[in-house]
Amino acid sequence: MWGFTRSEQRATLFLLSTFGLGILVWWYRASQPPPAVDSGELAALGNFMRAAQAADSARMLSATPMQTASAATPAAPVDLNAATYNDLVKLPGIGPVMAKRILEFRATNGGFKRLQDLRKVKGVGAKTYGKLAPLLIVR
């Protein structure tokens, strides 16, 4: 068979027959009607979806736009050389580990000379820096 050894021929035939069987199973499943859904299950799913939407709407209505905006970003720019751990954690994209790294960098290097020095902190890439730059200053 096309210059294959006996074991290569067997392996090729096995793979081709497995592929053919897979095609037959796929064709059979595609030709079958979809399974019937119990009306009780449909009602339960509908109730769940309505409850989830109501809870989401209530959550969105309870917070005014000013409250959500002030929780996401600080009111005034944060000075990198004077910021505390809690100030840093409140910034978007800064978690506890990153805040600790920033404070360690500041202690090791005697503070930030310019805002671009933030990029020298491990884990602060272009994307994170782009989010943080408008919210930070260096004095």
Can you characterise this structure?
The chain has six helices and two strands. It is flat. Strands 1-2 form a two-stranded parallel ribbon. With 139 residues, it is mostly helical.
Q: Could you list some keywords that capture this structure?
A:
139 residues; mainly alpha; DNA polymerase, domain 1; two-stranded parallel sheet; 6 helices; 60% helix; flat
Question: How are the elements arranged and paired?
Answer:
Layout (H helix, E strand, L loop, with lengths): L5 H26 L7 H24 L2 H8 L5 E2 L5 H5 L6 H14 L16 H7 L3 E2 L2
Parallel strand pairs: 1-2
Shape: flat
CATH top level class name of the largest domain: Mainly Alpha
Main sheet summary: 2 strands, parallel
| Count of the separate structural domains | 2
How would you spell out the order of helices and strands? HHHEHHHE
β content, as a range?
under 5%
Strand count: 2
CATH topology of the largest domain: DNA polymerase, domain 1
- Helix share bin: 55-70%
The name of the CATH architecture of the largest domain is Orthogonal Bundle
Overall pLDDT level: 86
Measured on Cα atoms, how large is the radius of gyration?
30 Å
Structural class: mainly alpha
Poorly predicted segments: 66-71
Describe the structure in brief.
Helix content is 60%, strand content 3%. The N and C termini lie far apart (79 Å).
